[in-house]
Specification:
By secondary structure, the chain is an alpha/beta fold. The protein contains eight helices and seven strands; from the N terminus they run βαβαβαβαβαβαααβ. About 45% of the residues lie in helices and about 15% in strands. Strand 2, helix 2 and strand 3 form a beta-alpha-beta unit. Helix 6 packs across helix 7.
Length: about 260
């Protein structure tokens, strides 16, 4: 299927590895020129080289912290008029909610709620003027099925979800859609670190905790960033113009509910 994205431009946050990298790769395979962001330049440059060699598209690198105002200005200077915006940022640390400080809550809100809202505000009017725009927010399955040790993530990402639910109904008439992708357990560094944290809290070996988590997935495996990226690319396609304000859960069947 031709997704109708060749020649479009995308701003992809936290794209040096994991799910952000998967999204950048899938968009590039469709002919999208991508600006990829992350804090670590070395990993970012390596990912950029991979994408260029595999797809031939233009890849712009911005090593910055997107959760800061200065970082967002730097990103938008490099890609001022994106057709596609992929919001993504590392999740806040897990733990007992009793130990979360005010500063930890503010940092979680800045990274996982206020930063994507600010980037939407900075780019959506240009998309409306051009009569095409696709915004995808990478959130978490915890929005749908909260995880007790991920209280910071549960709260901040749910706030973003509520914001999107209203705005997405205002932009779709202009062919600008806003949707959320909710990953379950994917084979990423984030998964490994959360397994390590859970193992520490439970007093168990990391390998045992990791295997137990895998066994909770009906698919019998962890997800791969490439398949997540392909789902993202579809939501950015011309075919997906009638989809907005939705929360797409990608978790190998782990969520047990009907709705």
């Amino acid at each position: 299927m031709d997704l109708g994205l060749k020649g479009k431009t995308a701003l992809v946050c936290a794209a040096s590895k994991g799910l952000g990298k998967g999204c950048a790769f899938s968009l590039a395979r469709e002919g999208v020129n991508v600006t990829i962001l992350a804090r670590g330049r070395e990993a970012l440059e390596a990912t950029a080289d991979e994408i260029r060699k595999a797809t031939g598209v233009k890849v712009t690198v911005v090593a910055t912290d997107i959760t800061t105002e200065a970082g967002r200005k730097e990103a938008l200077a490099a890609c001022p008029s994106p057709d596609i915006l992929i919001n993504n940022a590392g999740g806040p640390p897990p733990g007992d909610f009793r130990e979360f400080t005010h500063d930890m809550w503010i940092a979680a809100l800045e990274a996982n709620m206020l930063t994507p809202i600010d980037l939407i505000k900075s780019t959506v009017d240009g998309m409306i003027a051009r009569k095409f725009g696709r915004i995808v927010n990478i959130t978490s399955s915890a929005v749908k099925s909260p995880v007790d040790i991920l209280g910071l993530s549960n709260g901040a990402r749910s706030g973003l979800t509520g914001f999107v639910a209203g705005v997405a109904r205002k932009t779709v008439a202009h062919n600008v859609t806003i949707n959320n992708l909710l990953p379950g357990l994917f084979d990423t560094d984030r998964l490994k670190s959360s397994s390590a944290a859970a193992a520490k809290m439970q007093g168990k070996p990391v390998e045992e905790v990791h295997a137990t988590r895998k066994n909770t997935v009906p698919a019998g495996r962890f997800g791969h960033p490439d398949e997540f990226g392909d789902a993202c690319a579809y939501l950015c396609s011309k075919q997906a113009g009638y989809i907005t304000g939705m929360n797409f859960l990608i978790d190998g069947g782990a969520y047990p509910g009907t709705f």
